[in-house]
From TrEMBL:
3'-phosphoadenylyl sulfate binds at K81, G82, G83, T84, R85, R162, S170, K287, G288, R289, P290, H291. It is a single-pass type II membrane protein. It is an enzyme of class 2 (transferase). It is found in: Endomembrane system; Golgi apparatus membrane. Belongs to the sulfotransferase 1 family. This is Sulfotransferase. Residues 72-307 form the Sulfotransferase domain. Keywords: Disulfide bond, Glycoprotein, Golgi apparatus, Membrane, Signal-anchor, Transferase, Transmembrane, Transmembrane helix. The keyword Disulfide bond applies. Its EC number is 2.8.2.-. It comes from Hippocampus comes (Tiger tail seahorse). Residues 26-64 are annotated as: Disordered. The active site is at K81.
Length: 324
């Protein structure tokens, strides 16, 4: 799945967010009663004191000292090649959402750096704004659920899922672009060509076992704290999926049909150009690489393999994604 996204300039978007939120200080957006508790409440006292010291630094530009850095109240935790980057950029249009651009990888790779390091990566927010980050590998990291819950068990979790077969091919295509000498898809996906057994040790296959990964998360978080976004619908009906996301986050529905247009050449939606911009901009050229030709028999073996896992995932999530 490929989504084309127009990215507003960070400074302009930040200024709009600050202006809109400043007008409503004290009046949270949408139904804030459903939103998680302010994550500052769970910070160690030393972190809060450091935050106040940073805010008092008069030598910093006003744009860098307005508001405060908070732990994220919502995290896009997965999945890789599902459409997480598109979702994050769509959300960043909203004046009440402030998000980290790069993937922090705190709860999987850099947990030993500590909470202060993690919070330092967060953008500054005003009261009523939501802090977010996205790291798709969290969903398949065994330790991530317990670590996030240790920080804040009320964190809202968003999972963007996609047909696991096409997701696996997209994953392979990305790796192939960085390593042209990679073996063929079928040689990696199958343990043995004669038996046709699927190799679940290959990450491209393993990530698509959504039900197994979700079981790990449900040990720490109730299902009500998850939103499962359909990667296919994020392409075919971006406004509809974004309405669900905004409702889940307790936000006013600001991102709507008026923000999107369908690029007939590229075959996926883009964001319309903002006022003052000469033209729309889309996600980088790395998105939308042509997939290699995979033997139909191999794809069918994968579909048969994933079918029981998909059906279990439908039952667990309460959504039928129609991949079978």
């Amino acid at each position: 799945m490929v989504v084309c996204v127009c990215v507003w300039g960070a400074g302009g978007l930040y200024a709009v967010a600050q202006f809109n939120s400043a007008k409503r200080l004290g009046t949270p957006p949408g139904n804030r009663s459903a939103s998680p508790v302010d994550a500052r409440a769970v910070q160690p006292r030393s972190l809060l004191e450091d935050s106040n010291k940073n805010n008092d630094n008069n030598n910093m530009p006003v744009s860098n000292t307005f508001g405060s850095k908070r732990f994220p109240q919502a995290i896009i935790i997965g999945v890789k090649k599902g459409g997480t980057r598109a979702l994050l950029e769509f959300l960043r249009i909203h004046p009440d959402v402030r998000a980290v651009g790069a993937e922090p990888h705190f709860f999987d790779r850099f947990y030993d750096k500590g909470l202060e390091w993690y919070r330092s990566l967060m953008p500054r927010t005003l009261d009523g704004q939501i802090t977010m980050e996205k790291t798709p590998s969290y969903f398949v990291t065994k330790e991530a659920p317990s670590r996030i819950c240790t920080l804040n068990c009320q964190t809202k979790l968003i999972v963007v899922v996609r047909d696991p077969v096409t997701r696996a091919v997209s994953d392979y295509t990305q790796t192939l672009s960085k390593n042209p000498g990679l073996p063929s898809f079928q040689s990696l996906a199958l343990r043995n060509a004669s038996t046709g057994l699927i190799d679940t040790s290959w990450s491209a296959v393993r990530i698509g076992l959504y039900a197994k990964h979700l079981e790990n998360w449900l040990q720490y978080f109730p299902l009500s704290q998850f939103l499962f976004v359909c990667g296919e619908r994020l392409v075919s009906n971006p406004a509809g999926e974004m309405a669900r996301v905004q409702d889940f986050l307790g936000l006013k529905r600001v991102v709507s049909e008026k923000h999107f247009y369908f690029n007939q050449t590229k075959g996926f939606p883009c964001l319309k150009k903002p006022e003052g911009s000469s033209r729309p901009r889309c996600l980088g050229k790395s998105k939308g690489r042509p997939h290699p030709q995979i033997p139909t028999a191999v794809l069918q073996k994968l579909r048969d393999f994933y079918r029981p896992y998909n059906r279990h995932f439908y039952q667990m999530s309460g959504q039928d994604f129609g991949w079978d």
